[in-house]
Design brief:
By secondary structure, the protein is an alpha/beta fold. 27% of the residues lie in helices and 12% in strands. The termini are far apart. The N terminus is likely disordered.
């Protein structure tokens, strides 16, 4: 048994406190000696000397705050309120089976959101050969109508006019999009732009209207450089090896869509239509000649009545003079008129 020597320097009270402490430690030692054999491992039994006493905090000391994880990124736009147009490639390079996968992907993406009044709205556009692009579903808040429009989609089959796909989608969002709501175009293609028009210039027009553009390239033939130039940021470009991998993009697209920035409402003045100046020589038309038609009754020819008084010529008076040889006598015969 260990002996303890108590040295008291503070009188009876100090000695009493030391004595209480001594018995407490002594009892704790007996307790630990009894519990140690019961432990699964001897090192699991803690002795009094194994515990380090934490000194009390002074009034001026404050506990250091525990490190907290950085907050999750906040959404810049309500995920339940935005307008999105899916612009889907429908060129010859997409077979019927892949086109069916494309339609299923579009429906999966729409179904991932709350669609309805005051919530999200979707529109569906197909593009192919220049002039053949069309709207399959206008911006709608009716999920059933949107899915029905997707089910009824028939591939156009032709070339790849990405510029027209962007233009149709942009006009739909500008003319029918809601104010103070995030507006987006999600363009999907498996090829390259091979028609007239400039897709990059068209994308710039959309961005100037506050529209966010996301692009999806499928397969090695998709023009990655062009799709990055069209997208709002490099992070807004997605790529998969084939159509079967499209469902793997749904989650990432949903996140990007929910965090798209909201364009502030502004008054958009429509651009005037292009004026084409044709240079040509124009011969002024002669002034109109008014022909007055009237019936002119010709005056009858003047009838000249010549009145003449014919004085019959007097019968000739023949003066016959004859000499009658009469001796010494002359006879003169004068005719009576």
């Amino acid at each position: 048994m260990k002996r303890f020597k108590i040295i008291s320097t503070g009188g009876f009270r100090q000695s009493w406190k030391n004595l209480v402490t001594l018995f407490a430690l002594f009892g704790l030692g007996l307790l630990l000696n009894g519990l140690q054999p019961l432990a699964l491992q001897p090192q699991r039994a803690l002795a009094a000397g194994d515990v380090t006493e934490t000194p009390p905090l002074s009034p001026s000391q404050t506990p250091s705050p525990s490190s907290t994880p950085s907050p999750l990124p906040t959404q810049t736009a309500p995920c339940s309120s935005f307008d999105v147009v899916l612009a889907l490639d429908s060129s010859n390079s997409i077979g019927l089976s892949d086109f069916q996968i494309l339609k299923t992907f579009a429906k999966q993406f729409v179904t991932a959101f709350k669609v309805g009044p005051g919530a999200s709205r979707f529109g569906i556009v197909q593009f192919s050969t220049e002039g053949k692009g069309r709207i399959e579903s206008v911006l709608s808040e009716n999920a059933s109508a949107i899915n029905t429009a997707i089910d009824k989609m028939v591939p156009i089959n032709g070339f790849t006019d990405i510029q027209e796909g962007l233009a149709i989608s942009r006009i739909e969002l500008v003319t029918k999009g809601r104010p103070n709501v995030a507006r987006q175009i999600i363009l999907l293609t498996d090829g390259v732009h091979n028609e007239a028009g400039d897709p990059i210039a068209e994308a710039q027009l959309a961005k100037a209207e506050g529209i966010t553009i996301q692009t999806i390239g499928i397969g090695e033939a998709a023009d990655s450089k062009l799709l990055k130039a069209i997208a709002s940021t490099p992070a807004d470009t997605f790529r998969v090896a084939d159509f079967k991998q499209l469902p793997t993009l749904v989650k990432g697209l949903v996140f990007k869509t929910c965090n798209a920035p909201v364009a502030l409402t502004r008054t958009v003045t429509p651009k005037p239509k292009a004026t084409v100046a044709l240079t040509s020589t124009i011969t002024p038309k002669p002034k109109a000649t008014v022909v007055l038609t009237r019936t002119v009754t010709p005056k009858p020819k003047a009838t000249v009545v010549l009145t003449s008084t014919i004085t019959p010529k007097p019968k000739a008076t023949v003066a016959l003079t004859r000499t009658v040889a009469t001796p010494k006598r002359s006879l003169a015969i004068t005719p009576t008129p």
